[in-house]
Amino acid sequence: MSTIDVSAPGTPNAAGGARPARPARARRGRLPATRAERALRWALLGVVTLVFAFLVIPIVIVVLESFNSADYLSFPLEGWSLTHYRRFLDDPAWVDATLLSAKIALLAAAIATVVGTTAAWGLARATGRGKGPVFALLYSPLVIPIIVLAMSYYFTFADHRLIGQWPVVAVAYSVMGVPYVLVSVSSALQQFDPELENAARTLGAGLPRTLLRITLPSLASAISAGALFAFVIAFDEAVIILFVAGNDSVTLARRLWDSVRYDLTPTLAVAGTILIGVCVGLYLLSELIKTIRDRRERR
Fold it and tell me: 111, 159, 184, 255: which could join 174 in a potential S-S bond, CB 3.0 to 4.6 Å?
């Protein structure tokens, strides 16, 4: 009686036959690039390289200059030293300016975070034709030229004798930070299911408890990213502070500007390196928060 071989193709049969070779998968053919396409690629690569170098090389030079052993600005460096970092830390003017910048930036970021988050949540839940104009109004500080904002702040603060008051300066900077928080939180709210809030309200939770237990934890990463951008804007902005600082609120950016005009030493490079380090560090932190948020949303 003959038997039928029911073994699957590609597996050894009962007689111990060799496994047949699997057919090779068809690969999509790619047409070779023409000379014009190759030339365009190299041209685009060259343009990108030049733009990248134009943006990065000055930053690298500033960082390297902060380690210069000479008492004057010079490049190439005459030697490597931490002397100017010690001078920066020993100078009360530089230290006080740095601390004041941090204090103003923290207050500005806090105000911008509260206002921007509240506005984003309200606009997401509102229904009507006024949402567009309100969003455009809150977003306008990013569109209006910075010199126009600085002049308007100056005339307003001068009329009320508020020039030089650091809390008022923080409020001015918070206006610039609101759009960053607004955009970040609004984007997160588009992916947030409002039925979660409705379910919490149905189970007896009030609006404050729903916001604190359901909404805000879901938006924490977006709120943090917007707050970091608001902090960076307030920490290193130099145009507005020139108009509203007076003689009492000298921030790091204002001190740096004054030193460029009157005292060219490598200590300037130290201050610039600190500004660069804070901005880059907070940017990397915001990207880390964004990555964590994306991973949570994929789960």
Answer: 111
| 174 domain residue, yes or no | yes
Q: State pTM to two decimals.
A: 0.74
Buried b (16+ CB within 10 A) or exposed e, 13-47: eeeeeeeeeeeeeeeeeeeeeeeeeeeeeeeeeee
Q: Write out pLDDT tens, residues 197-218.
A: 677 777 777 777 777 777 777 7
Give the three-state DSSP class for 68: strand
Q: Rounded CA gap, 182 and 185, in Å? A: 5
CATH code where residue 177 lies: 1.10.3720.10
Residue-number span of the structural domain to which 131 is assigned: 92-263+285-298
Q: What are phi and psi of 6, to 5 degrees?
A: -105, 15
Domain-located, residue 46: no
Q: How far apart are CA 92 and CA 97, in angstroms?
A: 8
